[in-house]
UniProtKB/TrEMBL annotation:
It comes from the Bacteria. Pfam families: ECH_1. It comes from Fontimonas thermophila. It is found in: Peroxisome. PANTHER family: ENOYL-COA DELTA ISOMERASE 2, PTHR43684. Keywords: Isomerase, Peroxisome. SUPFAM superfamilies: ClpP/crotonase. This is Enoyl-CoA hydratase/carnithine racemase. Gene3D superfamilies: 2-enoyl-CoA Hydratase, Chain A, domain 1. One of its GO terms (molecular function) is delta(3)-delta(2)-enoyl-CoA isomerase activity. InterPro entries: ClpP/crotonase-like_dom_sf, ECH/Chromodomain_protein, Enoyl-CoA_hydra/iso.
Length: 257
């Protein structure tokens, strides 16, 4: 199940899924989405796994989708690895805990809407820069974010699309607690181990009940957003933004109507 960039192991009833591509700030390519989707589906089937811990490397959680991949191999169709990953996390039957250090960008932020417990370091930085790169929100964030914080605050986060602090993420109820950076992983792991010691059927049923009423709308939102962001990725605004990122220059949107 482990690949070079996604490391998985199981100990104390906890499957740890670690993003491990520090040279690209843990940007997610198609192989990584596939490995994470498979790990999450396997965790559901494996009776030795009773909780899942999702984390990155010491100074970075995830810089979002790999921008080179966005340019060269944009996701297409319902079975695109990114959509398989989104469905696997949204539908995970066992509890998922996230430990976030450093940047959590794009899907690195929006996946947190789908975990059960999330802990972040004081220097974590969250960002949903979809509009900045010529696309639109994904992973049901356009549905869940206004539901959680109201339209005005949601619009601020995804239309002005500026990075925000761990304190703001806590205020938005996106995470459970802010901790000193060095304590995040141990704290999150301790919570995952504690979940793994709970009666498993009661825990799974409770998670199912918490998610049940929103689940159909979340599934619909994931696909509806994808119908918009997939074609947008090939459009001129995204091409300009993504090429500018790769060329390490500021994008120029002045010519677009
Ligand atoms: N896709 C591909 N490569 C990425 C990447 C991404 N999403 N994010 C970072 N990288 C690469 C950089 O191109 C750079 O590669 P290089 O060393 O070959 O030049 C390397 O990772 C380090 O990134 P850098 O930007 O120098 O690190 P930083 O600490 O200054 O900033 C981020 C980190 C995450 C804030 C910044 O890289 C960033 O904003 N990344 C893009 C995020 C994004 O827009 N994601 C898509 C969301 S939908």
């Amino acid at each position: 199940m482990s690949t070079q960039h996604i490391l998985c192991d199981v100990a104390d009833g906890v499957m740890t899924i670690r993003l491990n591509r520090p040279e690209k700030k843990n940007a997610l390519n198609q192989a990584m989405y596939t490995a994470m989707a498979d790990a999450l589906r396997n965790a559901d089937q494996d009776s030795t796994v009773r909780a899942i811990l999702l984390t990155g490397t010491d100074d970075c959680f995830c810089s979002g989708n790999d921008i080179q991949d966005f340019l060269e191999m944009p996701p297409a169709g319902e079975d695109a690895p990114v959509l398989r990953f989104m469905r696997a996390l949204a539908e995970a039957r066992k509890p998922v805990v996230a430990a976030v250090n450093g940047p959590a960008v794009g899907v690195g932020t929006t996946l947190l809407f789908h975990v059960d417990l999330a802990y972040a370091g004081e220097s974590a930085r969250f960002h949903m820069p979809f509009v900045n790169i010529g696309i639109c929100p994904e992973f049901a964030s356009s549905y869940l974010l206004p539901q959680m914080i109201g339209h005005a605050h949601a619009a601020e986060l995804v239309m002005l699309a500026e990075p925000f602090s761990a304190a703001r993420a806590l205020e938005c109820k996106l995470i459970n607690a802010v901790l000193p950076d060095a304590q995040v992983y141990a704290h999150a792991r301790a919570k995952a181990v504690k979940l793994a010691q709970q009666p498993p059927n009661a825990l799974r049923t409770t998670k199912m009940l918490l998610k049940r009423w929103n689940a159909p709308r979340v599934a619909e939102a994931i696909m509806f957003e994808a119908q918009h962001f997939m074609p947008m990725l090939g459009g001129p605004e995204a091409r300009e933004a993504l090429t500018a990122f790769m060329q390490k220059r500021k994008p120029d949107f002045s010519k677009f109507a």
